[in-house]
Amino acid sequence: MNPNCMKKLFTVLCFLIPLLAQAQTGGIFSFRYDAGATVKIVGKNLINPWAGGINGAQYSTIHLNADTIPDLVTYDRQTSRIMTFLAEKQADASYLWRYAPQYEEQFPAITFGTWMLLVDYDHDGKKDLFTHTNGGLRILQNASENGKLSWKTIADPVYHEGLSGTLNLYINSVDIPAILDADDDGDIDILTYDINGGTANLYQNMSVERTNNPNGLDFKRIGFCWGNFRTDGDCNEFTFGLDCIYVGNETKGANSGARVMHNGNSMLVIDMDGDGNKDLLVAHVTCPNVSLLINEGGNAPNTRFTTFRGAFPTANPISFNTFPALYSEDLNFDGIKDLIASPNTYGNTDYLIDFRASNWFYKNTGTNKLPNFQYVGKSFLQEDMIDLGEGATPFLADLDGDGDMDLLVGNAGVRSDKGYQASIAHFENTGTKSKPTFELRTTDYLKLSEKFLLTDLKVAIADIDGNNSLDLIFTGNSINRVPEIRYIRNQGVRGAVFQLDATNVQQIPMPDRLGIIDMPTWYDVDRDGKTDLLLGKQNGTIEYHRNTGTATAPKYELARQNYGQLNVLPGATSPSIVIIDLNGDQHPELITGTRDGNIKLYQLPDQPTNPMQLLDSTLVINELTQASDIAIPGGNLALAAADLNDDGLPELLVGTLTGGVRYLLNTSEKIIHTGTEEEEAKLPWVFPSPTDRFLKVKSPNNGIVQVLNLLGQPVTTRLAVQAHTEATIDLGALPIGVYLVRLLRDGQPTWHRKVVLSK
User: Fold this and answer.
1) Which residues span the domain enclosing 409?
2) Do 342 and 411 lie in a common domain?
3) Does residue 133 share a domain with residue 236?
4) Are residues 220 and 367 in the same domain?
5) pTM of the full predicted structure?
6) Residue 173: which residues within 8 A CB-CB, separation 6 or more?
7) What is the CATH number of the domain that holds 479?
8) What is the pLDDT of residues 239-287, one digit of tens each?
9) Would you call 450 helix, strand, or coil by DSSP?
10) Fewer CB within 10 A of the end CB, N or C, for the chain?
11) Rounded to whole angstroms, how far apart are CA atoms 157 and 538?
């Protein structure tokens, strides 16, 4: 074929493929982050209820918008998630931090589980970005224009002048370095711990000395132990008076055989006593506290530490059980830099950290030159959002029978005097169907944490026992890390107040191959009237376990090891699954959320053996760009869905690893069904058939449904049904046989459908 023809054909195909995909899926799917649904805790409206939780945050300020007040950026080492907050002025002229996720995608990707600090090295009034690269340091210049952040890589990695020539400037990925003008000459220096973790290094910026330019990045290593000290083998053990000229960090007259600690140190360099000398606040990966080392010498390179205080601050000292890190920024809008402490860990080692309250705020009641840090609270930013610690798993259901959706949220666990235990929080919807207000009623729904010492609780609502009411299902791991599935039977009728007796908990027969981080979803896959089980597996696939028992006594057997034949990408493990009609086309979609923070939309297969078609992997639209948002909503995503604003389209709630929930407003193109009367009548509006007791009815119109025998005589009472809302008919009192289901639709022709009852 002629090359020009090939090029034209390729162009035409590139134009047509998106249109064909849109035609096949019946419309455009989209969501956007929303904070419209009010959340109340102890009578207080949360400022940022749907921000998604925070575990261990690294804090910096930067200008995100066009005003003159610095905004706030955090980076969470555990999830590598960046969060952005605007300084928002209130009617009384005060300010608060308003979560603004639309700016998050304007930051570059950060190496997973490392660090990010913002410092203006080139003195242009725009903070630049310092972060980890493989074994070293990466610097990106803030090249923002016209109010939009952009970044230009200046060095990756950064090199320095060493004894043996030009070398990589090493920074441990676990560390938090100090990036500041350490020698008061106007350019930015770098302080970080040595590769062995025992002594600190000064990488002095020689730009001013050599070129009289304070905006350069010309680093030289000075000596072998900045400050003449070494961190020794235990917490609060330091050796002072080192002679830093000697290679190997030997101490004249000291015990050179002291045990060097494991790598991992966080540093904050700040003048604490107002003498003009920069002191050191330091913490170690194995220690719970922060130590203050007092500078008795001068500023770099003459810094000399001789004493330390092992608990800082003296009143209400910082203690995280393991590895605190400190940051100093103005966090209360008074122009004076405060202190914030947060764990610098990859996870909750030995479950010692309470991630509901892991961001300790100390207000500076002094000045920037002579700070006085006073304890305020342990949950800075966290207190303004849903934050249940870690591993939030939401579910929406009308628990009180008032017609609107209430919210249950499980968690991975919280440290208590009984150990590390998970619970379920209950938020009652005290608003309306179109304007929800979720008010916290308890953090331990039905007191399940007291009755079961479980972790990693996941909650669901489904009809497990076949009595037509929706039961409460919870999955968790025992103290021995063995997965368990239990349910509490709902004694009430469907649509009424849930009647749950927590003293009568049933254990569901364990399906084969259930793993400790598998994500369960209950759905009638084969439409036989019995609830089946889908498991999002650790390897990223979905297993289909068919209910081969009865409606009242479920038994789950593996039917498909790779349901939908998913093409699994690295990191996309343990997918959470929601099956729901997202756009009103009367065909449910399957949505997954994975541990690496991705949400994907699939067309639900007609048969369990068929592959699933990927419809969309860029569902979330950025408010600023009106294009797909590339920022991840969090890690270990757990999905829930329901219509929360009464527009006929379900919203998504996304639980995160950091214990919070994101709210995704459904902005998809709503499909108005325009099929012919004959086409609509062929849709599966009553199912399953055959059935052993219950029939489900889902009509496109409001109407009245009734079951008749083959003589046309009614054998059940008339049941009112709402359009697109599933209703249930109980045939338990009827003999086996063939029946007619009649649907009298408001203003529409009557439909009939033959069904078989077999017991």
Assistant:
1) 393-666
2) no
3) yes
4) yes
5) 0.87
6) 111, 113, 114, 115, 132
7) 2.115.10
8) 999 987 654 444 443 444 444 445 799 999 999 999 999 999 999 999 9
9) helix
10) N
11) 35
